[in-house]
Amino acid sequence: MMSPWLADGLIPLAKILAVILYPMLMVIVMIWLERRVVAWIQGRVGPNRVGYQGILQPFADAVKLFFKEDIVQRRADRFLFNISPVLVMFSTLLAFCFLPLGESFRIGDYTLNLWVARSPVGLLLVLGLSSISVFGVIFGGWASNSKYPLLGALRSVVQVLSYEIPVGLTVLTVVFLARSMDLVRIVERQQESGVWYGFLLPVSFLVFWISAIAETNRAPFDLPEAESELVAGYHTEYSGMKFAFFYMAEYAHMVLASSLVVILFFGGWLPPFPGLKAFAFLGAIPGFIWYLVKIMFFLYLYVWIRATFPRYRFDSLIRLVWKWLIPLSLVNFLVVVGLRYLL
Amino acid sequence: MNSPSPAPPFLLAKADAFITWAQKNSLWPFGSGLACCAIEMIATAAARYDISRFGMELFRASPRQADLFIVAGTVTNKMAPVVRRLWEQMADPKWVVAMGNCAVSGGPFPTYAVLQGVDKVIPVDVYISGCPPTPQGLLHGLITLQKKIARGRPTQEILNPDAR
Amino acid sequence: MTFAIFLLFALMAVFSAVMVITRTNAMHSVLYLAFTVLSVAGVFFTLQAEYLGAVQILVYGGGIVVLYIFVIIIVNLDEVVAERRKLVPKIFIFAWPSLLALQVGTVVFLNRPAARPGPEGGLEFRALAEMLFTSYALPFEIAAVLLLAVLIGAVFVARRRLSRGPD
User: Fold this and answer.
1) CATH number at residue C21
2) For residue A279, what is the DSSP state?
3) For chain C, what is the domain count?
4) Which long-range contacts (CB under 8 A, 24 or more apart) does C154-160 make?
5) Which among A35, A39, A238 is the nearest to B64, CB-wise?
6) Of A77, A131, A154, the CB nearest to C27
7) Which contacts qualify for A326-331: CB closer than 8 Å, 24 or more apart?
8) Is residue C67 part of a domain?
9) Phi, psi angle pair for C18, to nearest 5°
10) What share of chain C is helix, strand, coil (3-state, %, to 5)?
């Protein structure tokens, strides 16, 4: 028996804490993973002095950045300069509220939902919130009153706006198959149909993944912060904790994109091989663990891609999206709709 | 730091230890090289010597985000104002390593065009001699710098910033 | 509880809308415009119009406001000379919105419709689509034609200036 104040007071409070702590924890793991994996791919060792195998390295970085001087140049627009890291962080963390972490399970007579908010248009909301994080990038770049941040911000606008189109078009195919924009419902539909949409819609998955990398400003599409041309892009003038906010928000955005890919295309918290009797024991592992494992795989893929591919030139970046990805996703959408009605 | 000051209270000492632990383990160098010493600096970051073991592989392109200025190479008189300006753009707390004989004292160039030691324009924490210093030499210098940072008292600077 | 949240979002929307028109810095105005858009989305959510709220965030927040910012950055605002307005247009500027507000207020307060409960189990896309394509088909198509006209006009304006330019 669960007392009402626990169900109505404590658990929502715990969820609020969790929705902030979970992305932060993933960010810390991701930063450590990236530095170790990139080092490993390049034949180096990577951070291994702080804590076991350097696992405390992100903590050391965060503490150091916290105690660093906070510089605001005299010519900067103070209001926008201060508010943009908050905007980036806020929109990304808000999107995590709509991501389910697993199916709901029962403790006694109480049903614990592993999500903060479930909405029939959850998918649209997550996409919308992740796209408004570009505000922080633009305002930050403009408010710095310096040429490299401004150029980085302009690049970021063009890039994010362009790559939102293939994201929308490919997400549409998933929504069309699942007949719902509810993220929980999409996973349930994949359970019912017995096949994950990533295998049903490989073109959608590829286009979505490429666009997700571009939307999170990651290599090989990290032009808004290309070091060889733009110093550090839109956050060139930021120091200390404000820079850390941009840095952490970028990684949180990657976690968000990976979670979306897992939910839309790889069955969220479902165990693999649903049809086979021989692998039925995999279902004994909680869905939350499967979900984390899948997310970690895509985060690893982010790092792998970063360590493998050189950076795109800006015109080829735009050509890729307007001449290849958008027509491809349009044709893909028509083919999916056509096949759905023919078969 | 040279004048002997009274031992700080227990909590502040713990805070000092914590902050300096973070600072010495996440020294992000500023990605700048002035001359041939920069090649050895790059070699230090590459596979065999691997500066990233100490958490120092994040060479920041922007001085605002860097903690450590490795002055790697000859500082000419033309370049000196730029070096000074970059150092001023870095956010406190910041450290400087003079790498190589040129940055230490002008090295083999006692001429009108070369600054005789970068400590004439910016304060230097660690000097590394050599022409150029080997990657081992640079790593030794960086570890020496870590020891120096560990002796620091950041809480004192935070509590009375005017005392610096 | 819902009413309190509604009030919060509504007040935020009104406050930031006022800030949009009172800021002298165009960039600040756009930031407050974004806040307005997001607060209106919040108002939609408290009214259980979740689809509308999500579209508001995605299209207005993520698309249109970002384009505004882009235009403001590209156009050098120093070259834009503030035009001097005479007294009559000034009165007009204040009279027009207040008349509009009066009218909206009258409509809202005189025939206050009974609040209808939202559909059970969230929102029905099928119902929304059917409504859009049957009873509201004509306004929908007219809006589409309007957008097309704007698009053609934009292309026309941009092309003419390009051909007259020195390069």
Assistant:
1) 1.20.120.1200
2) T
3) 1
4) none
5) A238
6) A77
7) A326/A165, A326/A166, A326/A169, A328/A166, A328/A203, A328/A207, A329/A165, A329/A166, A329/A169, A329/A170, A329/A203, A329/A204, A329/A207, A330/A169
8) yes
9) -65, -40
10) 80, 0, 20
Residues of B in contact with A35 (CB under 8 A): 52, 57
pTM: 0.83
pLDDT in tens, B32-90: 888 888 899 888 888 888 888 888 888 888 888 888 998 888 899 999 999 999 998 88
Q: Which residues contact C37 (CB under 8 A, 6 or more apart)?
A: C56, C57, C60, C61, C65
Amino acid at C97: P
Q: Hey, which chains touch C, using 3+ CB pairs under 8 Å?
A: A
Domain carrying residue C17 = 2-121
- Per the CB < 8 Å rule, is A44 touching B47? yes
Measured CA to CA, the distance from residue A43 to residue A188 in angstroms comes to 43
Helix (H, G, I), strand (E, B) or coil at A114: coil
Q: Give the span between the Cα atoms of B36 and A316, in whole angstroms.
A: 35
Residue C86 forms part of a structural domain = yes
Q: Judge whether C167 lies within some domain.
A: no
End-to-end CA distance of chain A: 50
pLDDT of residue A7: 67
CB contact under 8 A, C61 and A157: no
Question: What is d(CA A79, CA A145) in angstroms, rounded to the nearest whole number?
Answer: 13
Surface-to-core class of residue C4, CB atoms within 10 Å of its CB (0-12 exposed, 13-18 middle, 19+ buried): exposed
- Per-residue pLDDT at C140: 80
Is residue A128 within 8 A of residue A288, CB to CB? The reply is no
Domain membership of residue C145 (yes or no) is no
Residue C152, CA distances (Å) to A28, A68, C70, C114 in order: 49, 52, 21, 43
Q: How confident is the model at residue B126 (pLDDT cuts 50, 70, 90)?
A: very high
pLDDT digits (tens, 9 = 90+) for A284-341: 777 788 888 889 999 999 899 988 888 888 888 888 888 889 999 999 989 988 888 8
pLDDT over 70 at A94, yes or no: yes
